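Dear colleague,

As promised, here are the two records you asked about, laid out in our usual form so they can be pasted straight into your sheet.

NAME FIELD: protein one
SEQUENCE, THEN STRUCTURE:
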Amino acid sequence: MRILVVEDESIIARDIAWVAENVAGYTVDRIVSNVDEALAIISAGQVDGAVLDANLNGQNSDAIAKELKRQSIPFFLLSGVISRKLLPPELADAPFLEKPYSEPDLLQYLRNLRKAATSLGCSWAHPTIL
């Protein structure tokens, strides 16, 4: 499974990519830090799932999340700045992981991406953390 990591903090992006590749078994094709790059990659059909920081250097990533949802590409949002309450209504039910997160929580959210990608329909319900 190819995932896109959209994160503006490079140390966090590398951590997500490391867990995704070395623990969850994904391929991280790209790490990007802005809306335009992410939208171009998604439009090119190069991803099966995404990890999306809700705030990219002060710019919200709603457009990316909406495009992922429109294309039924599973994703989850994460943020240490934006709370779930501040998400637009159409994204209020998207999986949301609050920073700082633990590695087991991140791994569970990554596993839920695979479940969503292999299911017939994409559910935007909150993942269950075990």
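NAME FIELD: protein two
SEQUENCE, THEN STRUCTURE:
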Amino acid sequence: MGYRAAPNSPKDSKGRDKYFQGKYELINPEKYLGSTDSIYYRSSWEYKLYHWIDINERVLKWNVEGITIPYEYEENGKWTTHRYFPDVYCEVQKLDGTISKTAIEIKPYNETIAPETPKKETPKSLINHEYRLRLFLKNINKWKTAKEFCERRGIDFIIITEKFFDDKNVKIF
């Protein structure tokens, strides 16, 4: 089972939770693979996806961060080994009766595209750009490894963004 610690809950200036995070309460616990007492969402997108998967009759089994994918990443001339946990794994019965296995990652759209060079190059904007570029390159490496890992095991790997939730009718399969 993947890393599922309770999310941090930073507060805003009025003492309210800054982000939409919490413990997900299962509607159909018999479909969940793993411990049902440690399912946390760290964004409204994760919550929406968990809810949709939980109530969808065609989803037979699912879990949160249930796949561990080792990958290597080079930074500052040094290679290090890391572990990556896609947000969701699910098994879905397709309309033709076959079962599809899918690993899903949820990311903000701006982290799935290469960052643009800032129009005004200040020291701070260049530092921020470098950070976004490193994050993008790390994600690309991680997703390439995840895709290969999943393909070898007959699992589809998909990345969804907030644009996925713009349409109120969530359709993955």
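A couple of things worth noting about protein two: The beta strands are 22-23, 40-41, 59-64, 69-75, 78-84, 88-93, 99-106, 156-160. The chain has one domain: 22-165.

Best,
R.
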